[in-house]
Prior knowledge:
By secondary structure, this protein is mostly beta strands. It is built from no helices and eleven strands. The strands form two sheets. Strands 2, 4, 5, 6, 9, 10 and 11 form a seven-stranded mixed sheet that branches. It has a four-stranded antiparallel sheet with strand order 1-3-8-7, with no helix packed on it. Strand 9 (90-98) and strand 10 form a beta hairpin.
Amino acid sequence: VQLQAYGGGLVQAGGSLRLSCAASGVIVSAVSMGWYRQAPGKQRELVARITRDDTANYVDSVKGRFTISRDHAKNTVYLQMNILKPEDTAVYYCNVLHKGLPIHDYWGHGTLVTVSS
C-alpha cells in the first residue's frame, strides 16, 4: 500500500488549499480513511476521517472549515481546507483507519501546509 499526500504549500490566513491523497494497493472507498497533521513540537493528530459509509467526522478545531471527501474513480481522498489559520500549519498525512487507528506501515511523507498571518 502506498499513500501519497500532496497539495500543500504556503497560503495566507483566510485562504484555502485542497490536499489530495493518491492511493495504490488499497481501494479508498472500501475502507475508512483519515487525514492527520503534525505541527512542530506536537503529536500527530487526526483532523478528519471518512468511514466506509461516507460518514465524516472532524476535530473541533477544523469543523466548518475542512471537508473530507473521496473519488472512487481516482482512488483519491481529498481534504478541502478553507479559512485557514496559522495554527493549521503542519505536515498533513493520510492513512487507512483500521478499528479507528492508523496503520503504522502506511504512513507516507506527508505534505507541508504553512499558513502565514
